[in-house]
């Protein structure tokens, strides 16, 4: 099996606003405004950006209060780079940092779209239903 991880590097930190916006849309996540990204990205507790050479091709972030609650968001890889273990690599970096820095008992949540739940289960995440269900509202 070919090692697809080799040509990729992972940098600590979220990407710049314009790259963030592009990665979300090209990977199939919902579009965000530049205004929203400019306000939100500086509040990243921990983030990673995956590069192929100098080209950003994936990302992931942890947001939250740094103590009681954190949420994993923005896990994405552009379509031409999917299926190469990059989502797993992003999750490994984020979970490793949570295990290193988050206090004992911190609650970490995420929203799993489609089959992404299979990846997240590999990192110890469990579905909450029927005891609780995720809810959302867009403003």
Layout of secondary structure:
Layout: E1 8-12, H1 17-26, H2 34-40, E2 46-52, E3 55-64, E4 69-77, H3 86-101, E5 107-110, H4 116-121
Parallel strand pairs: 4-5
Antiparallel strand pairs: 1-2, 2-3, 3-4
Q: What oligomeric arrangement do these chains adopt?
A: single chain
The CATH architecture assignment turns out to be: 3-Layer(aba) Sandwich
CATH first level: Alpha Beta
Count up the helices: 4
Number of domains: 1
Output the structural class: alpha+beta
Number of strands: 5
Q: How does this structure look, described?
A:
- With 139 residues, the chain is α+β, with helices and mostly antiparallel strands.
- The chain has a single domain (8-121), classed as Gcn5-related N-acetyltransferase (GNAT) (Aminopeptidase), CATH 3.40.630.30.
- 28% of the residues lie in helices and 25% in strands.
- It is built from 4 helices and 5 strands.
- The protein has helices spanning 17-26, 34-40, 86-101, 116-121, and strands spanning 8-12, 46-52, 55-64, 69-77, 107-110.
- A 5-stranded mixed beta sheet has the order 1-2-3-4-5, sandwiched between helices.
- A hairpin with a 2-residue loop joins strand 2 and strand 3 (55-64).
Key features of this structure:
139 residues; alpha+beta; Aminopeptidase; five-stranded mixed sheet
Question: How would you sum up this structure in a few lines?
Answer:
The chain has helices spanning 17-26, 34-40, 86-101, 116-121; strands spanning 8-12, 46-52, 55-64, 69-77, 107-110.
């Amino acid at each position: 099996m070919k090692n697809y991880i080799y040509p990729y590097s992972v940098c600590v930190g979220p990407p710049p606003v314009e790259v963030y916006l592009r990665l979300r849309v090209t990977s199939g996540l919902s579009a965000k405004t530049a205004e929203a990204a400019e306000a939100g990205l500086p509040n990243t507790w921990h983030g990673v950006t995956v590069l192929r050479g100098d080209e950003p091709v994936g990302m992931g972030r942890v947001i939250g209060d740094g103590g009681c609650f954190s949420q994993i968001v923005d896990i994405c890889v552009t379509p031409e780079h999917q299926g190469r273990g990059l989502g797993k690599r992003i999750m490994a970096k984020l979970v490793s940092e949570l295990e290193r820095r988050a206090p004992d008992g911190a609650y970490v949540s995420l929203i799993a779209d489609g089959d992404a739940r299979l990846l997240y289960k590999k990192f110890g995440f469990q579905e909450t239903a029927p005891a609780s269900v995720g809810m959302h509202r867009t403003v």
